[in-house]
Design goal:
- By secondary structure, this protein is mainly alpha-helical.
- Helices cover about 75% and strands about 0% of the residues.
- It contains 16 helices and 2 strands.
- The protein has helices spanning about 1-25, 35-45, 50-65, 70-75, 75-90, 110-115, 115-140, 145-160, 165-170, 180-205, 210-235, 240-245, 250, 260, 265-285, 290-300; strands at about 100-105, 105.
- The protein has a two-stranded antiparallel sheet.
- Helix 2 (about 35-45) crosses helix 7 (about 115-140), helix 3 (about 50-65) packs antiparallel against helix 5 (about 75-90) and helix 8 (about 145-160) runs antiparallel to helix 10 (about 180-205).
- The two termini are about 20 Å apart.
- It binds geranylgeranyl diphosphate.
- Geranylgeranyl diphosphate binds near residues 50, 88, 89 and 231.
Length: about 300
């Protein structure tokens, strides 16, 4: 058990380093735009973070195809989802939203660069994600049709019907009036949708069949929900050093969370139920290499950061 945990941690560290190398050069150096904006983008992109979503893109490609070239082809999309995720964190930390001073163990983007530049850095990252997907289509391995399907998925899952909608519902909800069904909506969209996107995109690049894409989607929704419930738990009982920001922010902001609505024990049981169901779904889809995704699901349930 301890050996398996060490092995997945080694894999995550190695993959995160590859993703970070891609992110360092993701905006062409010859593009002419204000240095401060470039610094603000790279400040947050290179602030660390677990890189779970890009790693999911790569692991999903690996689950579908034995050819390492299919995994290599997925890097621009891995970068795209980290750009979207990082923009969402920068905007979420703004005074108008969660008003946080620390993220990934460093002062938040607006604390360093000011609100206006932080907003624009988020805008730039969001837009650049779509540029990265266009790059995928320029590679011979990935068809324009596949890239178009990835653009469509990202527009839905990161947009109004996806992460942005989930964030809006979260901001509009409050303790005392938000039901469990509404909380599920929030978690499913605010958190699961980017994870689901990552898995589907990796699958698409590696040539997944429609039933395999469907299985990756079901797996993503469930582990995404479990990931967010664990996030709610860490906000209550996590170690600030490890998670890189203050704990108890949900309580201080009267946020509705799983532990608040159903209690800590039930929340932990729900994480286990969702993870088991996700793994079963994946196993029934006959993927060539599901092992890494199954290990990632287990790792996420037990994460402490
Ligand atoms: C501003 C449109 C918009 C959306 C914001 C990301 C987000 C939506 C809100 C941040 C708060 C939060 C708890 C979101 C749920 C998703 C989540 C658990 C984010 C943290 O992801 P990790 O743990 O972070 O992967 P790192 O830093 O490791 O990348």
């Amino acid at each position: 058990m301890a050996e398996a945990r060490q092995e997945i941690q080694h894999y995550l560290k190695e993959q995160a380093q590859h993703v970070e190398e891609t992110l360092r050069h993701i905006i062409p150096e010859e593009w002419d735009f204000p240095v401060k904006l470039r610094e603000a983008v790279h400040y947050s992109l290179e602030a660390g973070g677990k890189r779970i979503r890009p790693i999911m893109v790569l692991a999903a490609a690996e689950a579908i195809s034995n050819d390492p070239a299919d995994v290599d082809a997925a890097y621009p999309v891995a970068a795209a989802i980290e750009l979207i995720h990082t923009y969402s964190l920068v905007h979420d930390d703004l005074p108008a939203m969660d008003d946080d001073d620390f993220r990934r163990g460093k002062p938040t983007n607006h604390k360093v660069f000011g609100e206006a530049v932080a907003i624009l850095a988020g805008d730039a990252m969001l837009t650049h994600a779509f540029y990265c997907i266009a790059l995928v289509a320029k590679q011979k391995r990935v068809s324009a049709e596949t890239a178009l399907a990835i653009v469509e998925d990202l527009s839905v899952l990161a947009g109004a019907a996806g992460m942005v909608g989930g964030q809006a519902a979260d901001i509009l909800g409050e303790q005392g009036s938000t039901s469990l069904a509404e909380l599920n909506y929030i978690h499913l969209h605010k958190t699961s949708d980017l994870i689901t996107f990552s898995l589907k995109a990796g699958g698409r690049i590696a040539g997944a069949q429609p039933h395999q894409i469907e299985a990756l989607e079901g797996f993503g929704q469930r582990i995404g929900l479990a990931f967010q419930i664990q996030d709610d738990i860490l906000d209550l009982i996590g170690d600030e050093e490890k998670i890189g920001k203050k704990t108890n922010s949900d309580v201080n902001q009267n946020k509705v969370t799983y532990p608040y609505l159903i209690g800590m024990d039930e929340s932990k049981a729900e994480i286990k139920r969702l993870t088991d169901e996700a793994k079963q779904l994946l196993l029934s889809a006959n993927l060539v290499n599901p092992q890494r995704l199954l290990e990632l699901a287990d790792y996420l349930v037990n994460r402490d950061r």
